[in-house]
Design brief:
Blueprint (H helix, E strand, L loop, with lengths): L5 E4 L6 E3 L1 H5 L6 H10 L3 H8 L4 H11 L4 H9 L5 E4 L1 H13 L3 E6 L6 H7 L8 E4 H4 L6 H10 L7 E5 L5 H6 L3 E4 L3 H11 L3
Parallel strand pairs: 1-4, 1-6, 4-5, 6-7
Antiparallel strand pairs: 2-3
Helix pairs in contact: 4-5
Length: 203
């Protein structure tokens, strides 16, 4: 019997190139100012609360109240969110296409993504419809790396963790999947992923 029958993809940073710097680089005069703002005001931790189900409006108003001097630039985060989407990572999309065409594996997505912005990506990128199923953090009101969202994926799609591969560009998010019995891959580049899949006999 085949060692694996299921492959689970993270989306942002793996299949979709999303980065707030793409938008904020048009606002700030220099990179140092931009990086300070992203590290101290619209932080990753703050954005993850929206990924976990807090509404964009609630998150924005909370942050504006905390940092009123930065209101204009805070509001730009979601007002101009589409500018943070650079596009697909074509080499990884090609790997997904090959896996889909082979019809050997169940393909799923597990992503930290706001329920309000994910439909925009769904409309924009046709390959997001290639999966057999997906779990979106904002819809579940929880997020990676909390173990419950991985368990939701496993339970909803009747996945045998021992036969599943989970890949993510954020190494923090691999630990819960591994604890639940999945084989994990730290995604660093499409070339590395292809090499890992070839070594595992996936491609």
């Amino acid at each position: 019997m085949a060692r694996f029958d299921t492959i689970v993809f993270d989306l942002g940073g793996v299949l979709v190139d999303w980065n707030p710097e793409y938008m904020y680089s048009t606002i700030f005069k220099n990179e140092e100012e931009m990086r300070w703002f992203l590290q101290n005001i619209t932080t990753g931790e703050w954005n993850e609360e929206q990924d976990a189900g807090r509404t964009l409006a609630e998150g924005t108003e909370w942050l504006v109240k905390k940092h009123p001097a930065h209101e204009t630039n805070i509001r730009a985060f979601y007002d101009r969110w589409l500018e943070m989407l650079k596009g697909p990572l074509p080499e990884t999309v090609e790997i997904l296409r090959e896996l889909k065409a082979a019809k050997k594996y169940h393909l799923y997505a597990l992503t930290n993504w706001s329920a309000e912005t994910f439909p925009v990506a769904l409309e924009k990128y046709h390959f997001l419809h290639w999966f057999d199923g997906r779990v979106v953090s904002g819809e579940e009101k929880t997020r990676k790396p909390f173990k419950e969202i991985y368990q939701t994926l496993i339970d909803r799609f009747h996945i045998d963790p021992a036969k599943a591969i989970y890949l993510d560009d954020n190494i923090r998010n691999l630990a819960p999947a591994k604890e639940l019995g999945m084989f994990t891959i730290h995604f660093q580049s499409p070339a590395q992923l292809r090499k890992d899949f070839e070594e595992l006999g996936i491609l």
